[in-house]
Design a protein that fits this description.
This protein is an alpha+beta fold. It has three domains: 191 residues, Histidine kinase-like ATPase, C-terminal domain (Heat Shock Protein 90), CATH 3.30.565.10; 124 residues, Ribosomal Protein S5, domain 2 (2-Layer Sandwich); 135 residues, Ribosomal Protein S8, Chain: A, domain 1 (2-Layer Sandwich). It is 32% helix and 21% strand. It contains 18 helices and 22 strands. The chain has an eight-stranded mixed sheet. It has a five-stranded mixed sheet with strand order 9-10-13-11-12, covered by helices on one side. It has a four-stranded antiparallel sheet with strand order 16-17-18-22. A hairpin with a 3-residue loop joins strand 20 and strand 21. Helix 13 packs across helix 16, helix 13 packs across helix 17 and helix 15 packs across helix 16. The longest helix has 19 residues.
Length: 616
């Protein structure tokens, strides 16, 4: 039998490696920015066009590379970070496998200019699909500039799997946040299609967080700090009242590297137990420092999933540290048994002296001596008082029957209820009646049996079709606010509002201005209460950012889903009979009454036969 196993060509092996390292433009951004950090850069610029599909450029002022190093850096497993297998257990750099540049060059057009401090001129390399097209001497500043153009140009199938420009830009922004947050000592600039998105000066962690997520974040942060032999924890957690329905600002960093750890996330949530609702998530920015030999960061190509030697100890330390911070800064309620504020002396009484109360005593009073007045039935004493004139106590009440507050109370009549059950003339009225079961279901009757409707899911379906129609037809009704409302958002949230502004306007929102961090709202849809405008917009932005990331549905459909989720009747809300009947009628007027917008059953019918079986 002929030999069938053979070595793959280098360009095929590089494309396979690229499939592991480069999943989307954000992966390229992560690798290039981490290389710039490893090069000792103090200023890093990220330039993006068309969500990274056309151009990704990272410019740094780091150490740069010589002519030989520049060419060798694009070879597979070529790196300056490690020299032996033992170095993998004591890593102090970001990239160390030497696959990033080789993988990127295999699937894109790469243009690199680099120069070291010792050299007067630098090197200019052009690579297309792992092939070096040209190498020239060029005058360039100290550091490295790498441009990645036409990503996946030679793999059309991979390029077709990329999402929309907005979705890819959002992934790039998330990656930029993860790198920028952990390195506040480095200056970062982010440009998209020629406009500046972020300009982050160097500073401290708190300043970096505020620069990225807006000035409103400053009042939400609670410091966290603890140092043990096993783990050093620092950073910030958000106050419990600012927890969100969706996962928002949640960042773990281990040894200056962004990581994902559901186990440690559970430790944070456990520390907030009793302070936040079960369906909300706390925000946190936590920086962990452990012994490099006790963490394995090479179990996944993206290096975001890590393995700790002793996770149970880390869990306990992290949970107790956060609980301590919540109590130390008076964020969590505490019981103080040593001090009772009710026993404090008011300031106005501190200098006052004691006043002896005066007591007057009638020394001639004899309770066993009956006076003449008491014999007549009047005066002080223990004799029986006269009941004359008791009618005067109720004078004037007889004329107020029409305005009596008890006149509106209706007492249920059992005879009338029994009449609707058995008399033939009231059968139709009875069939049209509804009632609410456990503040969750609306129950009514149909010809085939009993109809049970899930009130939350049914209202979501009704609102979804209503909002989807208004966005499409552009006929949303708006109610003007007497006083315009100013709301504060960070840059990423403002970008989402600008992206969906037209659809929001079609529904009924009216925006007067969209400034650097402020949005002025002058009109809202009829269903949005004035007191809940900020909450609705916050949840709308969070749902949109989370749900639109897959890019599988249109913007109008995603927006209608988010609004219906946030404005629908909740489980536990009490509905009057008129609202119950309207919910039933509106549900069956929908195009698809069977399912909610999130593909869950809205109602079920229990047949008369099923009911009869229960009595067999």
């Amino acid at each position: 039998m002929a030999d069938i196993i053979k070595l793959l060509p280098d360009h095929v092996a590089n494309q396979i490696a690229a499939g592991e390292v480069v999943q989307r433009p954000a992966s390229v951004v992560k690798e290039l920015m981490e290389n710039a950090i490893d090069a000792g850069a103090s200023c890093i610029k990220l330039i993006i066009k068309d969500g990274g599909k056309t151009l990704i450029q990272v410019v740094d002022d780091g150490s740069g590379m010589s002519e030989t190093d520049a060419r060798l850096s694009f070879e597979r497993h070529a790196t300056s970070k490690i020299s032996s297998a033992q170095d993998l257990f004591n890593l102090a750099t970001k990239g160390f496998r030497g696959e990033a540049l080789a993988s990127i060059a295999a699937i894109a057009h790469v243009d690199m200019q680099t120069r070291t401090e010792a050299n007067e001129v630098g090197t200019h390399l052009k690579i297309e699909g792992s092939k070096i097209v040209s190498q020239e001497v060029v005058a360039t500043p100290r550091g490295t500039s790498i441009s990645v153009k036409n990503l996946f140009f030679n793999i059309p199938a991979r390029r077709n799997f990329l999402k929309s420009t907005q979705v890819e830009l959002r992934h790039i922004t998330d990656e930029f946040h993860r790198v920028a947050l952990v390195h506040p000592n480095i200056e970062f600039h982010f440009y998209n299609n020629g406009s500046e998105i972020f300009n982050l000066p160097h500073g401290k962690h708190r300043q970096r967080i505020v620069h990225i997520f807006g000035s409103k974040m400053d009042n939400r942060l609670v410091p966290v700090s603890e140092e043990t032999e096993v783990l050093k924890v620092s950073g910030f957690i958000c106050k419990p009242e600012f927890s969100k329905k969706s996962r928002g600002e949640q960042f773990f960093f281990a040894n200056n590297r962004y990581i994902k750890s559901p186990y440690l996330h559970h430790a944070v949530v456990a520390a907030f137990e009793g302070l936040i609702k079960s369906d909300t998530h706390p925000g946190y920015f936590l920086f962990l420092e452990v012994n490099p030999s006790s963490i394995d960061i090479n179990i996944h190509p993206t290096k975001t999933e890590v393995k700790f030697d002793d996770e149970n100890t880390l869990y306990a330390i992290l949970r107790s540290t956060i609980k301590h911070s919540l109590g130390q800064f008076n964020v969590a309620p505490v019981l103080d048994f040593d001090h009772d504020p009710n026993l404090d002396t008011p300031y106005s009484y501190k200098e006052k002296g004691a006043v002896i109360p005066k007591v007057s005593v009638d020394s001639s009073f004899n309770p066993f001596q009956e006076t003449a007045a008491q014999k007549g039935g009047s005066g002080r004493g223990f004799g029986k008082q006269s009941a004359k004139g008791w009618e005067d106590l109720y004078e004037g009440l007889g004329n107020q029957n029409e305005h009596n507050e008890f006149s509106s109370v209706v007492i249920e009549s059992e005879s009338e209820e029994q009449g609707t059950l058995y008399s033939g003339e009231d059968v139709e009225e009875h069939l049209a009646s509804t009632f609410q079961l456990r503040r969750k279901y609306v129950v009514s009757t149909v010809k085939s049996g009993m109809l049970v409707i899930h009130q939350n899911r049914a209202h979501e379906r009704i609102l979804f079709e209503k909002f989807l129609g208004e966005i499409t037809v552009k006929e949303g009704v708006s109610q003007q606010l007497l006083f315009p409302l100013e709301l504060t958002f960070n840059k990423q949230e403002l970008a989402v509002i600008r992206e969906i502004q037209e659809s929001l306007t079609n529904i009924g929102f009216v925006f007067d201005s969209l400034d650097q961090e402020t949005v002025k709202v002058t009109g809202v849809p009829m269903m949005v209460p004035e007191s809940g405008i900020g909450t609705v917009l916050d949840r709308l932005i969070a749902d949109y950012m989370e749900g639109y990331s897959d890019g599988s549905i249109s913007q109008a459909e995603m927006l209608a889903k988010a609004l219906s989720r946030n404005l629908a009747v909740r489980t536990g809300d009490v509905l009057d009979s008129e609202s119950q009947l309207m919910l039933v009628n509106n549900l069956f007027a929908c195009k698809e009454p069977n399912l909610s917008p999130f593909q869950k059953i809205t109602y079920t019918i229990i047949s008369e036969g099923d009911i009869d079986k229960k009595f067999n």
